[in-house]
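Schema walkthrough. Field components (list of strings):
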Amino acid sequence: MAWHKKAGWSLVALLGAFALAGIALHRGESINALWLITAAVCIYAIAYRFYAAWIAAKVLTVDATRATPAERLDNGRDFMPTNKWVVFGHHFAAIAGPGPLVGPTLAAQFGYLPGTMWILIGAVLGGAVQDMVTLFFSMRRNGRSLGQMARDEIGAIGGTAALIGTFMIMIILIAVLGLVVVNAMKHSPWATSTVAATIPIAMLVGVYMRNLRPGRVLEASLLGLVLLLLSVFLGGWIDHQEGLRSLFDHDGLPLAYAVIAYGFAAAVLPVWLLLAPRDYLSTFVKLGTVFLLAIAILLLRPQIHMPAVTQFVDGTGPIFGGKLFPFVFITIACGAISGFHALISSGTTPKLLANERDIRMIGYGGMLLESFVAMMAMIAATVLEPGIYFAINSPPGVVGKEAVDAIAKINSWGFVVTVEQMQQLASDMGEQSLFARIGGAPSLAVGMASIFGTAFGKGMLAIWYHFAIMFEAIFILTTLDAGTRVGRFMLQDLLGNFNKTLGETSYTPSVIFTSAIVVASWGYFLYIGVIDPNGGVNILWPLFGIANQMLAAIALSVATGILVKSNKLRYAWVTGLPLLWLVTITTTAAFQKIFSDDVRIGFFAAANDLSAKLATDGLTADKAAVAPQLIFNQHLDAYLTLFFVVVLWVVVLDMFRVSLRALTGKPVLKLSETPHESSRLVEGWVRD
Amino acid sequence: MLKNVFKRLCHVWHLIRRLSGDDAYEQYLRHHLAFHANTLDAPPLLSRKEFYKLWQDNKWQGIKRCC
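Field assembly_structure (string):
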């Protein structure tokens, strides 16, 4: 490396270390968000330039002259050598969903520091490594899926575990995301009407692309985007019409039923009508908004008002119960390390890579960008006054139903906020109330609205707020559509083993039957979440986190097993250390969720507490009515958690068994890597 | 200078079209021409509308969106 490059990178390292030390040691009133951005960018740059490059060169021994599956199996459809920027765009659009926005917002209850550190360290040493090595191993195996690789390299157990794990995560994920949307729409005619309008808009775009001007994706998307923006204004207008607003002013339960009905329709309707056009719109809105937020944060350099660390690290947090360790690592999955990404890295992406070298930019770089999105969500949540943040995010079961009680409780924690302040904020945002708007979406929207409002015009706070809600809702609903459909395919695949016709994806009775099962599964958890006085998010989000980290552990087990089998034991720590960490946090979290005596953490403790209260008439009539369902659900959640952790250990131990056999020279399943074939795509060839 | 800027913009536009799938049909035609033009068992050439339907259905098989 030339001396000026060395000097440049030393400077980046120094600046990053300085910013990180600044964040970690700062104990003043507030800190500027620029510190977080600087630390993040420097750490990402160093990790990408050195760690990722080292992994690619030494651990994986990437071979730029070797033909990729895209070149060897080019069929003009799924296998196709593609420009790396285009693959990067596809990959990023696929991995970045609502997860990195919700997780950091919830984890901000511990203060900005723990979440920020985990997002940075988790991504560069864990998440990005997982995404890159999975992408690499899948690419060397003709784009095989994680489940297939687990079966080929470790054994049948790993493969089945990956399959079941994926299905379960899908169900929990959709339920919790549905809950986030329901909470954002609850008693908000503006938000509800805007979100509702996205459905006919998507259908209109679908018809345009299918019938009016077939395949003209860009012009149809542009039309849709204009209509989406109009729908935000239309929502504001509806909110001011006495007759109309009552049509969209609903409790959580009817909204949950509407989301369930919508999910079913989206899974059964043809792709071109709803899912595909909605995905176009959500991708454009997502990229545009994230870009705008980055610009606004850079322009504005807002102060962060949340303390570095709050007293809630002791486990008494109002948003979810549980100590900093392990729960911050469970709460922020997407943005730090997300097992779900391994499914994308072993799905579409490896079939498009034109050159093996591209895995660093797409696998590692893509995850770094997602981590940066999580960082922005953390900033948007922590620029709010902590009192306001807790007033929006604390469930009534913890702080009380009445505004006065909630404020008194939050003040007693040492966070200043008044009823008048909350009323003023609600009216600025065009909402009736912002108390107990749990799930993360409303507080993120308030944070984004205040950043956008200050940067691009303060008079439009209500518009920005509802734009942000629409932005979150539109891609949450895309994940919901796509996830339900995937769940349906997986179920049909499974049922196809027993009955051939049930396995046919175009056989209508089977489509309806399997869609109904999938929708009923997540619909159940959504329903329970809505009727739970503690808001449901505190139960569902950790469950999702545990499941997602379990999948990450499976992916890292497969990778570690392959490294050991390829005689690369000395490098196995690259995936082995993050795996060890994941096993530790997932097991600890699962253990606490099952066995803790604290009713806000332990599922059984909560169920027993509720049973005791029910038996002694210690509950109000409305709480007593739902108590039996809540008790049943707490038991179900406990067994589900147990199941996740057992699956995790089975896969990890199986990987150990295979690795030990390989190390002691005993026979193991052969490496399933495809043989070397030289690339015909010569240097300098324009890759698109 | 101006020519260079124009070239760059064209390249970006090209990438956006590729990324969004706006040029998927043109790409399909190129592929068809390159691989199937002179073969006897060539699959029939699809119209833009037929291709688009197939392409969409194909795109949404499997896990395409994440958390």
